[in-house]
Structures are given as C-alpha cells and as structure tokens.
Specification:
The complex is a heterodimer of chains A (128) and B (200).
Chain A: E1 9-12, H1 16-28, E2 34-37, H2 40-49, E3 54-57, H3 66-74, E4 84-88, H4 93-102, E5 106-109, H5 114-123
Parallel strand pairs in A: 1-2, 1-3, 3-4, 4-5
Helix pairs in contact in A: 2-3
Chain B: H1 3-31, H2 37-61, H3 69-101, H4 106-122, H5 125-154, H6 156-161, H7 186-199
Classes of the chains: A alpha/beta (128), B mainly alpha (200).
Chain lengths: 128, 200
C-alpha cells in the first residue's frame, strides 16, 4: 500500500520562512493538499473546522506552543488519532521525552532535509 | 523582597557609604595628624572608586546614541528581519526555477529539482539563526532592565552625568544601517536631495 499523497497536511510554524520551506519540500514530495497556521491556537481552530490527516508542527510558538497543540489534539475525540510530527530546534532529551509522553508520532530536529521529512512522514503511516 | 526593592536598598547603602566616607575623610583631614595620612589615602581611593563605578553604571544605562543596549537589541532584531527577507527572496527565485524545470526534459528537471531542494533545505538557516538571535535579544533586554534598576538605585543625577560623550565631527555621521522603522525611504531621500538642490 502506498502513501496517500492527497492527504490533508496541516503545517504550523511562527516563522513564515519555515512554513514556506515545509510547503515547498512537501510539494516536491507530491503533497499538495497543505494548509498552514502560525501558532497552535490558529491550527487548532482550523482543525476543529476541517480535520487534517497529518500535522507537522513547530514547538516554540505563542500564544499556543506546539506541545500544547499536541496535547489538545490528543485530548480531542475527533482529532486524537491524527499523526503528529514535531519539527523543532528544541533538541534536549527532556523535550523529546515530553513530546513522546504527550503522544507525538515522530520528532524532527531543525535544520532538517527533505529525505528526513519524507522518512518521518512515511514512518507515521505504518503499512503505507 | 523584589529585585527592584533590593536595588533601592543597595542604592541607599551605596549613598550612605559614600556620604560616610566623604565625611570621614573631611574629619581626618581636619585632625591634621600626619600619621593618619595613609588611612586618608586609602579612604580617598575607595571613595573615588565608588564614585567612578556609579558613573560607569550610569553610562551603561542610557544613551540615545548608537551603542546603547536597547539599540544593540534593535539591531539584532533587524538582522532577523533582513535575513528572513533574503531567505524568502531566495526561495521565491528557487520556486521560479522549479516551475521552469517542470517544462524541461527529465534529466534537466531532476537536476534542477535536486538543486532547489538544497536551496529550500539551506533556507532553514534563517529559522535557526532567528531563534538564536531572539534568545540573545531577550538576554540583552534582561541585562538592560537590571542596569536600569541599578542606575536608578545609584542616583539619577549620577547616571545622567555618566552618559557617554556624543561623537563629534565626521564620526557622528557613522551610524551604520538605519533601523527600518526609522530609516528614510529612497523617495524621501530623493525629495530631500531635490529640495537641497532648489535651496542652493
């Protein structure tokens, strides 16, 4: 079974540059159904309206961080099973542990490359 | 006790210590006993250093010149904005290359797409450096807040007297790139230039 490239992907980052990088890399990986938000709260509002098949989020944002977004997603019956990849410069062990405990599906440390992004997306859809 | 009230207490103690030293020195001078001279010299040395230190703290505090801590933090924030602008320009160009590549033969298309992928990946430098610089800016802001409190505790008059001397002559013109919120636009410069032509 191959990965559904038409899946809806929500990307979340407070740096417009990073949103643009993610969008371009996803396009090169043939993911064209991409929505974006600049913080956790904005993403959550959009997700309540239209759920995504995959969430790729930064951690350090205001007013709602990526970790809080992750916890909100995991605490919501409609969203809780959505694969969630954290893409962040926060690379301390305690960060990874906290994200894992909150239910993150995978974790990418910035700076990253297209191959890492592709591999992590594939990994959160087992059997695809 | 809060940090601010701590600084006020320190300020009062510094004031009292300096007053006490000055009074002691005057009284010892009045005694006229030469055996006390070494002690007087030491006390004068201490009093001088307290005064100089207070002035230096005051000099750190302010300055609407180019090298205050506030200005340094602003300059760093400008670096973040400028690199973001440049990164977006670079990516915009890469997107054009990618669009053009779509109409080329497979070999050329693959080569160009690989190149644009590398450009997108490398553009992440802006995010990383932006976050690092933001941390430095926050540290500057914290230091500035503490110096402000310390300078107030040491006495406003002293802090003002200790401000750095402004540059003179041509050196005063060397301010480097202006911050975008205060910089004149090219059209404003053109208008000014033309108005000077008219005046001369």
């Amino acid at each position: 079974m191959s990965l559904n490239k038409n899946m809806r992907v929500m990307i979340v980052d407070d740096y417009n540059t990073m949103l643009r990088i993610l969008r371009n890399l996803l396009r090169q990986l043939d993911f064209n159904n991409v929505d974006e938000a600049t913080n956790g709260q904005e993403a959550l509002d959009k997700l309540h309206h239209t759920p995504a098949d995959l969430i790729i989020s930064d951690w350090n944002m205001a007013p709602m961080t990526g970790l809080d977004l992750l916890k909100s997603v995991r605490g919501n019956a409609n969203l809780r099973k959505t694969p969630f990849i954290m893409v962040t410069a926060e690379s301390k062990t305690e960060n990874v542990i906290a994200a894992k405990q909150a239910g993150v599906s995978n974790y990418i440390v910035k700076p990253f490359n297209a191959e890492t992004l592709r591999a992590k997306i594939t990994s959160v859809f087992p059997g695809a | 006790m809060t940090a601010a009230s701590n600084d006020s207490v320190v300020g009062l103690q510094i004031d009292r210590a300096q007053d006490y030293l000055d009074r002691l020195i005057r009284e010892l001078h009045a005694l006229g006993d030469e055996k006390k001279q070494p002690l007087v010299t030491v006390l004068e040395y201490l009093a001088h250093h307290i005064r100089v230190t207070r002035e230096e703290i005051g000099a750190l505090k302010l300055g609407d010149g180019g090298d205050s801590l506030t200005s340094t933090a602003d300059e760093l924030e400008e670096v973040v904005a400028e690199t973001a602008r440049a990164a977006n320009e670079i990516m915009e160009a890469a997107e054009v290359v990618e669009a053009v590549a779509a109409g080329t033969d497979p070999q050329t298309r693959n080569a160009l797409q690989a190149a644009t992928t590398r450009i997108y990946e490398a553009s992440a430098f802006q995010d990383i450096t932006g976050q690092r610089i933001t941390k430095v800016v926050r540290a500057f802001q914290h230091i500035e807040m503490r110096i402000e409190a310390l300078a107030q505790a040491c006495g406003e008059a002293l802090s003002q007297s200790g401000s750095r001397e402004a540059s003179k002559g041509d050196a005063a013109l060397l301010n480097g790139p202006q911050l975008s919120r205060t910089a004149a636009t090219q059209s404003e410069i053109d208008s000014l230039f033309e108005s000077l032509d008219t005046a001369s």
